[in-house]
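B., you asked whether I could sanity-check this one before it goes into the benchmark set. Here's the sequence:
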Amino acid sequence: MFNTDHQSGGMASASFGLMSVLACAALGGIALYSSGIGLIDPKLHRAAGFALSLIVAVAVSRTRRAERLNKSAKTERLPALNLLIDIALIAVGLWAIWSFYFVQTQMETALYDVSTKDAWPALAGLVVFLELCRRLWGYGLFFVGVFGVLYLLYGQNLPGILAHAGFSLKEVAEAFWYNTNKGVFGSITNIVLSTVYIFIIFGVLLEGTGAGDTLLKFAFLLTRKTRGGPAHAAILASSLFGTMSGSTVANIVGTGTFTIPMIKKRGFTPTFAAGIEATASSGGQIMPPIMGAAAMVMADLTGVGYLNIIVAALVPALFYYFSLFSAVTIESRRQNIEVQAITIDDKITGTDLINSILFIAPILTVIGALVSGLSTSAAGFYAVIVLLVLSLINPEVRRDPMRVWHSFIKGAQSGATLLVAIAAIGILVGSLDSTGLGLKLANVIGELRGDSLFSALFVAMIGALVLGMGMPTLPAYLIIILVMGPAIQMLGISMLTAHMFVFYYGVASSLTPPVAIAAYAAAPIAGANPLHTALMSFRLGMAKFIIPFVFAYYPIILIIEEFSLLPFIWIVIRTCFCIWLFSSALAGFDARKLSLAEILLRLIVAFSVLVISPSIHLPAIAIGIALIIYDRRQIKHSNATLDQAVQK
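And here's what the prediction gave me:
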C-alpha cells in the first residue's frame, strides 16, 4: 500500500512539474510578446497570467512541501487528500478566472451588472489565491489579504474612523475581482505583467548565462588593495548582483555562498561576515540601473518615467554603499586586519573579460533604449534578446545550452510566484480604495504630527517598517505606499520623494529585527547566530534609515525635480561626513577605540551636520573635524609612548 501511494505521489509530482514547466514557458512567451512584439487584450492578458501562475504556484508549493518533508525525514501524511486539495485549487481558481474574463467581456459588449451568482466564483477565487499566498509567501501577506476581505465585509461594525458604510456581497466581488483598476486584476497586476515580468526573466537570465561569476571576480580585483578585501568585494558584487536579481534573498544566496567564507577567512567574525553580506545584498534593489521590480512599479505609479527613477535613485544608493564601505574599513581597523595579496584564483582571465560583455551589453541596451524614448518593457525585451544572442560567447553556455532554458523557466516561475503576492496586494488596494481608509489614516497621522515635518516622517518610517516586516520588497513597498503615501504627500513633499521615502523603508524592513529576513538568509551560510546577525545587519545598514530623511529635506539629491550644482555638492559632502561620524560612533572605533563621551558626541554632531540651518551645521562640521583630528593625535601619541617604552 505504501509503495502504491509513493508511486502515485511520484507520478502526480511529475505531472505537476511538467504542467509547471509548460505554464512557465507560456508565461515567458507572453512576457516576450507583450513587451516587444505586440499588445495583448488587457482582460485576456491578466486572466491568462493568473491562470498560468495558478498552475505554477500549486506545483511550486508541492515541491516546497516535499523538500520540507525530506529535510525532516518524514513522509507525507494523507498524500491522496493533499493531491485532491491541490487539484481542487486549480479547478476552482480557473473557474473564478474564467468568470472574471466572461464578466469583463459582457461589460465591454453590453450593460452588465455583477450579480449574486457572479459573487460566488469571485469569493472562491479570493480563497484560492490567499491560500496560495500563505503557502508561497507566509502568513504576513496572507493576513494582509484576509484583512482586506474581512474589512470590506464587516468593517461597518467597527468603531470610529475604521467604520465604513458597508458593502454587499456583489459590491465586494466587484471591488476585489471584477475590476480592472483595483483588486486582484487591477492596475498593479497590469504593471507587473506588462513591465516587471520581462525584467524578472532578464535578471535570472543574466545569472544563468554566467554574468554573476564574472562580476564576483571583478569585484575582488577592484577591492584587492583594501583592508576589507572580500568584505568590500561583497559590497561591490552585491550592488551589481542585486541589479540583476532584484531579490535580497536571491542576492545573498548568489554571492554570499562565495563571499561569506572568504570574509571569515580574512579574519572577520562570522556575525560580521553574514551581516555585511545581508546589508549589501538588500542594497542591490536601490542601486541603478535595474533596481528590481519595485522601481518599475514606482515609475508607473508616479508617472515620472523609469529613466527618471534611475537618476533619482543614484546618489542615495551611492550614499548607502559609501556607508557600508566605511563600516568595513572601520571594522577592519578595529580587528587590525591588514591588506593581503590577491590569490591566483581571483585573477581575471581572458574568458572573464569576454563574459563581462554578458553584463555590460544588456545593461547598456536598457539604458540606450530608455534614452531613445522606448518604453520600459521594450527596453527589457531588447536586453533579453541581446543577452540571448551574446550568451553563446560563454564556453559554459556552449557546453550546456540548456542552462539558458532553465534560467528562462526559473525567471518565469519567479514572476508567477510574484503574481500570487500581487493578488494579496490587489485585495488590499481594493479595500483601501473602496473604504477610503488610507486617507483616514493620513488625517490621523496629520493630527499626530502637529506642525513638525520630522515627527511626521518619523511616524511614517515606523509605520513603514512595521508594515514591511517579513515581506519581499515589492509587496512591502506597495503596502507602505498605499497606507502611508497619502499622509507623507500631505506634508507638502512631492509624489516622487514620498515614493522614494517609503521604497527605502520597504527595502530596509528586510534588515529590521525581529523579522530580518535578509539576516536570517545570510546567518546559516556564515554559521552565525541569526538574531546576532540581525542586530549586526541593523547596525551596518543604519544609513538606510537616515538617507530617506536626507532627500526628504534636501530633494536636490534626487536631481530630477530641482538641481543647483553648489548646494548639491555641499549636501553631498555633509552627508558623507555624517555617514562617517555615524558609522564610527556605532562601531565605537575610528583610528582607535572611542570613549563613551566621544561616541555620544559623534552621534550628536552627525545629526547636527544635516540640519538645514547654517548656524547649526557649520559649527557641527567644525566640531566633527576637531573630533577626527583629536582621534588621530591620540593614536599618534599612543604609538609614540609605546615606541619610547620599547626603546627603554
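One thing to flag: Residues 2-138 form one domain. Otherwise nothing jumped out at me.
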